[in-house]
Amino acid sequence: MKWLSRFRFKSRKPSHASITACPQCHQEMVFVEKFTMMGDDRRTYRCERCGIERVIDFGSALWKIMSDANKSGGTH
Ligand SMILES: [Zn+2]
Predict the structure, then answer these.
(1) Where does the pLDDT of residue 14 fall: very low under 50, low under 70, confident under 90, or very high at 90 and above?
(2) Average pLDDT across the chain, whole number
(3) In 3D, which of 28, 10, 9 has the Cα closest to residue 18?
(4) pTM of this structure
């Protein structure tokens, strides 16, 4: 599978993917605005490269990262 080796080469990034990375180009997006309401923690990030904005729900996103970290084994 040729595409697989290409994909692996392209995806050389830290083992824990950043939630603030652009879904398209995987560059770190820039922080734009923060919304906090009803205990939610949502932040708008923008990718200067793609020109897209994305609202990230840190409330659940951080939970997801924590559970993912637990799954990937404790080297800590
Ligand atoms: Zn992008």
Answers:
(1) low
(2) 78
(3) 28
(4) 0.58
37-60 mean pLDDT: 89
Give the distance (Å) from ligand 1 centre to CA of residue 28.
8
* Max CA distance (Å), the chain: 48
Residues in the chain: 76
In angstroms and rounded to an integer, the radius of gyration of the C-alpha atoms of the chain is 15
* 74 CA from centroid of ligand 1 (Å): 31
Residues with CB under 5 A from ligand 1 (ion): 22, 24-25, 47, 49-50
Q: Is residue 44 part of a domain?
A: yes
Whether 5 maps to a domain, the answer reads: no
